[in-house]
Amino acid sequence: MNPSLNLRAGLVSLVLLLALLSVWQLATQPKTSNATAYANPEYAAMMGSATTKAAGLPTPEAVGQTLVHQLANPFYDNGPNDKGIGIQLSWSLGRVLAGFLLAVIVAIPLGFVIGMSPLMFKALNPYIQLLKPISPLAWMPLALYTIKDANASSIFVIFICSIWPMMINTAHGVASVKKDWLNVAKTLEVSPFKTAIMVILPAAAPTILTGMRISMGIAWLVIVAAEMLVGGTGIGYFVWNEWNNLDLSNVIFAIFMIGFVGMLLDAIFGVLTRLVTYQE
């Protein structure tokens, strides 16, 4: 990697950040004039306590203060509607990981079957094409009715949205394995199971991980919307609850946290994909 390029890229990123913060600061200046405040001190005091809740978007300073306050004690628990951001993110990540792992258990074996068998591909492809475009949230009412549990319904929705990219990428990776390698395995009379594990899996691993990476990104997007619908706990519910309280500083803080956690999840799969690719 070019150190000079990295330095210049960092400087450009810093300049863009400062420009964004400057525009944000200018756009969120208080609208109440000093003359009005001095003429009516009681009105000024009342508006000062509700600046972030009723006078438009909060300033960068207000959001920064919220960030410091929230991260100072992220795991506090003062009841159903007052939990720290750490607890909210933990619930969301738990649901995402549960639904994602269930999708891994189903999607990767099915992807192997579809990729190795043209017959199964033709038989299952119509169902995949029918179900894949359906919004995951469209399944939520049916899940709530049948499962009758908000937490399990959220996990089911994550499972549904995660399964398709993984299955399709796995099938594509398996089908793209060089035929010469498979012919050598047949010549050596290697069993189909060993061929799948020792030949196909290593060759298709980068494509499979790419599908898993896409699925994780979609799952993290969907959990926020799902938690807004079902309530309870989670980062999506936190955003919705703070919106109902008209606390936009907490809403913006939560948006930043959603982006930060999503970036970390994507980076993890990026590292895994590079490791598998380098080992080839």
Give a brief rundown of this model.
The protein is mainly α and 280 residues long.
Output the keywords.
280 residues, mainly alpha, MetI-like fold
Give a verbal description of the structure.
The chain is an all-alpha fold. The chain has 2 domains: 3-58; 85-278, MetI-like fold (Orthogonal Bundle), CATH 1.10.3720.10. It is 80% helix and 0% strand. It contains 13 helices and no strands. The chain has helices spanning 3-27, 34-39, 41-48, 51-54, 60-72, 85-116, 118-131, 140-147, 150-175, 179-187, 192-230, 235-244, 248-278. The longest helix has 39 residues, at 192-230. It is globular, with a radius of gyration of 25 Å. Residues 33-39 and 43-52 have low confidence and may be disordered.
Structural class: mainly alpha
CATH architecture of the largest domain: Orthogonal Bundle
The rounded distance between the terminal residues' Cα atoms is 21 Å
| Sheet of most strands | none
Strand tally = 0
The CATH homologous superfamily of the largest domain is termed: MetI-like
Helix content estimate: over 70%
Q: Briefly, what CATH class of the largest domain?
A: Mainly Alpha
Order of helices and strands, N to C? HHHHHHHHHHHHH
DSSP helix count?
13
Q: Low-confidence parts lasting 5 or more residues at pLDDT below 50?
A: 33-39, 43-52
Mean of residue pLDDT values? 86
Q: Using only CA atoms, what is the Rg? A: 25 Å
Percent strand equals: under 5%
Outline type: globular
Q: How many separate structural domains? A: 2
* CATH topology-level fold name of the largest domain: MetI-like fold
